[in-house]
Fold this sequence. Notes:
The chain is mainly alpha-helical. Helices cover 70% and strands 0% of the residues.
Amino acid sequence: MTSPSTRSDAPWDLTFLKVGALAAAAVTAVVAPVVGFLAGWADAVGVLVGAVVVTAFFCLSGLVVAWAGRIADSFTLPAALGMFFVKAVVLFGVLNALPEDGWLDRRTLAWSVVAGALLWSGVQLRWVWTRKLYYVPPPVPPSSEV
Length: 146
């Protein structure tokens, strides 16, 4: 029987963070000016801030979950759920602290966070679907000795 503090030898691959950040930057570079021209520059700033918030939140979560996984596999779920709770509280506080008619549009910021979270989730899904992930230890390669 293994103890709950056992750790797998599988390395934590965080390359999806770079891909997600690049995807978010590309989409934001296209969407922010369009929103600025169509809805106003306060809305464009809301798109920019929303993209930064989502990117920072996903990167922070990825790092925390990987850190927890390096300690013990059983710590990853509590780390992920804890980070989700912290991010929700922080986002709620940020949205409530912003003035209703301030320098950025709160509603656009909130919708940008939703759209950014969906984009990042899609990046993570594609990243997982296109990687070779072993559910058991991979087979030992054949030896070159004859």
